[in-house]
Amino acid sequence: MYDHNGEDVFVIDAHVHLWDAREENITHQGGEEFIQCFYDYHTTFTPEEREWGIEEYRHYGADRMLEDLFAGAAADMAIFQPTYLTDFYDEGFNTTHQNAELATEYPERFVLNGSFDPRDGEAGMDHLEELHETYDIQGVKLYTAEWRGESKGWRLDDEEAFEFLEKCVELGIENVHPHKGPTIRPLNRDAFDVKDVDDAASSFPDLNFIVEHVGLPRLDDFCWIAAQEPNVYGGLAVAAPFAQNRPRKFSEILSELLWWLGEDRLLFGSDYAIWNPDWLVEAVMEAELTQEDRMEYGVEWDLETKRKVMGENAAELYDIDLEAKRRTFQDDEISQQFDLEDHYASGTPAAAD
Length: 353
What we know:
The protein is an alpha/beta fold. The chain has a single domain (about 10-335), classed as Alpha-Beta Barrel (TIM Barrel), CATH 3.20.20.140. It is about 45% helix and about 10% strand. It contains 16 helices and 10 strands. Strands 6-7-8-9-10 form a 5-stranded parallel β-sheet. Strand 7 (about 175-180), helix 7 and strand 8 (about 210) form a beta-alpha-beta unit. It is globular, with a radius of gyration of 19 Å.
């Protein structure tokens, strides 16, 4: 667990990927533009001494992922959020089946999410059912700006999308993670618009809509929607890196979210490997709200709030027993691999990098 001023904090990184953007996997110019755009975000926010080279960034692999997430005790668990992009990448950019290889090897550490695309019709419905039957998925990551042939996006409030959401209710897949963040080349900005969350959340009160990237740069729209829809949550991936090099902007974003949504509806995510939790968790945990924001919004970024945002809220959504996890981690394979078992057994968290 992460050591924050002598207090342990259980961290669930709620937004990670294991992608393959090697040139031999790219079948469309959009695939190269996509990974280059990711890399631009990486170098913009990552501390210079922690930046990766582009070739490692294209395909870092499972071993590197395990080390980055868990070796320094920056994170205890992680949630895979797939991004298929099969029009751009021959084998997909980061699919549920690919993520499953690592998630099934380390089931105590990973939560495996699926996906759907309503444009896939009956075949897509069969795929969703297969994912649920095979992996017992509890959540889906949705990429509304993904290209499919001539189509350059879809909406959550489309009639076809509602059919898939109805299937999620039927199957007991309760957590819906739509990507609603910055534009990524060559995808279209408007296809990431957050406004379609409103009708979907109202129409499916039994589902939780974890809006990834909190709608940035449409934060106001997201906050107004989330304020009236109690089943809408905010995923902090993309917002979190502002803590490292634009702390006043991070204070503003976090204060808005805490004021509108409260501390129970925000989830930390690194967006690994766009950014790495081995430095990002520390940046977020050590961040402070400005005095002006504390006075204006009347909110605090204190230990109790941090514990909820960094792990407890995700645990609530995914029925994760944190105390049971702590006991399990005392002697699991990753703890032994990275010499973490003594820290879990003694209650003394490992030092983060």
